[in-house]
Design goal:
The complex is a heterodimer of chains A (267) and B (225). Helix content of chain A is 32%, strand content 15%. With 267 residues, chain A is an alpha/beta fold. Chain A has two domains: 96 residues, Rossmann fold; 133 residues, no CATH class. The longest helix of chain A has 14 residues. About 4% of the residues of chain A have low confidence. Chain B has two domains: 73 residues, no CATH class; 130 residues, ATPase, nucleotide binding domain (Nucleotidyltransferase, domain 5, 2-Layer Sandwich), CATH 3.30.420.40. Chain B contains six helices and nine strands, in the order E-E-E-E-H-E-E-E-H-H-H-E-H-E-H. In chain B, a hairpin with a 2-residue loop joins strand 6 and strand 7. Chain B starts with a strand and ends with a helix. The relative contact order of chain B is 0.18. Classes of the chains: A alpha/beta (267), B alpha/beta (225). At the A-B interface, helix 9 of A face helix 1, strand 6 and strand 7 of B.
């Protein structure tokens, strides 16, 4: 009889409940966040299993699932993720007979806080850290909140390059904030905005969150709705760049002094 | 200072020591040409100082439009884009490079192919549903096969494009129009709202404002030293 010390290879989609993350940490599993690209394969390969007109993140999940030889996949299909993930779970279970696909409905309500969302660091770095934090049950380090000059509302994009257009003093809102807080179905937190700062409302094309993103952008006194599919094209990047630039200068100038930080949920 | 808007079909160049900008077909531009400040699809190849087209459009609008509440729509050869200001603040903007693709280019192509004169054509009562220049062409061919005159079919196509651009810009009461299609009276008359024509050089005015501002900042900095 032989015993293997090779860690189990686990894929996660969305944010599985904390109890599962703790269990995976205890087992010393190797965790892959399947929402992010892990392999250099053409996303069109997913079209054999999912329609082309479908969320690029879930198409990425399929590509990762086909490529990573996983022992198990935990895919959240509750109100903190989406119906599309529910159907993707069915497809994954069918096309990956060697992998155990386990659906979860994460309704964790213990707030971990959102220090990265309000700190002053490059936005790309912060959202990378937030997505990475999903794989750990450890509490966060405190970080000082900065005075915001811009807002990013939405999910972590499939194409992180668009995040490099934002200033370091951007506050993060929407589902990404719920992600850091480890409460993915916290709808009140997801709908939180700061009306005093110009905010880009981002959603992946063909995702149900496009409805909320556009609705909130319309309500926001200074919001821009943007969606993009697999990669952010030049026109999408130009829109964000121009919006942020024009929002802080004439005609659309902001006051010389920055607005106070007013984007925390009252307890 | 040489400013340029390097568009898909036409380039607009402005030597600021001259009074008026020049219009040159893009295919005639020297690939080695370098300018001081540029915008447009092909601009990055010709300068070290590139300005995003939406920013140039907005700055041009700030110079040319004496209002703090307006929608400025630029209909180019390849795409359409707009900027909307409300109470002096940027309210919304859009750049439709995919589904609004090739509208201006297609209109010019049809004008030449069918030998049409847009200055004499009437706005039709109805229009085709056109979301993009390329896809809209099939409506024209179908209408001509069905017995419509070429001019009538193209007029419906042009009106469809104008309505699409109007919807894209958020259905304003007044549109400030920028770009080469300002010179197409059929297109302009097809909008269901008041249209104020600003011509082809709005982005150049934006570049000039940006260059002037940069010069002032630089001069102030030197004066302080």
């Amino acid at each position: 009889m032989t015993t293997s010390t090779t860690p189990q290879r686990i894929g996660i989609v969305g944010i599985p409940p904390l109890a599962i993350i703790k269990q995976l940490e205890t087992e010393g599993c190797l965790i892959f966040d399947l929402d992010e690209p892990h392999v250099k394969r053409d996303i069109e390969l997913a079209s054999s299993y999912l329609p082309r007109v479908f969320c690029a993140i879930l198409r990425t999940v399929i590509i990762n699932g086909l490529s990573l030889k996983l022992d198990r996949i935990y895919i959240d299909v509750g109100p903190g993720k989406c119906d599309c993930a529910l159907h993707t779970a069915t497809i994954l279970a069918d096309i990956l007979p060697e992998t155990t696909v386990i659906t979860t409905r994460n309704q964790d309500s213990a707030a971990f806080g959102t220090p990265l969302c309000t700190s002053r660091l490059p936005l790309l770095e912060r959202i990378s850290a937030i997505t990475k934090s999903v794989q750990s049950a450890r509490p966060y380090q405190d970080l000082p909140a900065c005075v915001p000059t811009a807002g990013f509302w939405g999910v972590p994009p499939r194409d992180f390059s668009l995040l490099s257009l934002f200033p370091d003093s951007t506050h993060v809102f929407g589902w990404t904030r719920c992600m850091e807080n480890k409460t993915p179905d916290h709808q009140q937190l997801e709908a939180l905005i700061n009306p005093d700062i110009p905010t880009v409302f981002f959603a992946q094309s063909f995702c149900a969150k496009t409805a909320l993103a556009r609705h909130l952008a319309t309500k926001h006194p200074h919001g821009l709705y943007v969606d993009c599919d697999v990669t952010a094209g030049n026109s999408t990047k130009a829109k964000i760049e121009a919006f942020l630039e024009l929002s802080t200068t004439q005609q659309g100038s902001l006051p010389d002094s920055c607005p106070p930080c007013s984007d925390q949920l009252s307890s | 200072m040489l400013l340029a808007d390097f568009g898909t079909s036409y380039c607009k160049l402005w030597d600021t020591t001259a009074t008026a900008p020049q219009l040159i077909a893009t295919k005639e531009i020297d690939p080695a040409l370098k300018v001081d400040l540029a915008t447009g699809h092909n601009g990055k190849r010709h300068t070290d100082n590139y300005v995003n087209e939406l920013t140039a459009l907005a700055r041009g609008g700030n110079v040319l439009i004496d209002a703090d509440h307006y929608t400025l729509l630029d209909c180019g050869s390849r795409d359409i884009k707009y900027i909307c200001y409300e109470q002096g603040k940027i309210k919304n903007m859009g750049w439709n490079a995919e589904c609004g693709a090739s509208m201006g280019f297609t209109i010019e192509l049809l004008e030449r192919y069918y030998n049409l004169d847009f200055t004499t054509m009437q706005v039709p009562a109805s229009s085709f549903s056109v979301t993009c220049g390329v896809l809209g062409m099939s409506h024209i061919f179908d209408a001509v096969v069905g017995g419509a005159s070429e001019a009538e079919a193209v007029a419906k196509f042009v009106k469809g494009i104008a309505l699409n651009a109007y919807n894209f810009a958020g259905n304003p009461d007044i549109i400030y129009l920028s770009g080469g299609l300002c010179d197409n009276p059929l297109f302009v008359a097809s909008f269901p709202c008041q249209v104020v024509l600003l011509g082809r050089f709005v982005l150049l005015h934006g570049l000039k404002a940006i260059a002037t501002h940069a010069k002032k900042i630089s001069a102030n900095g030197q004066a302080r030293q």
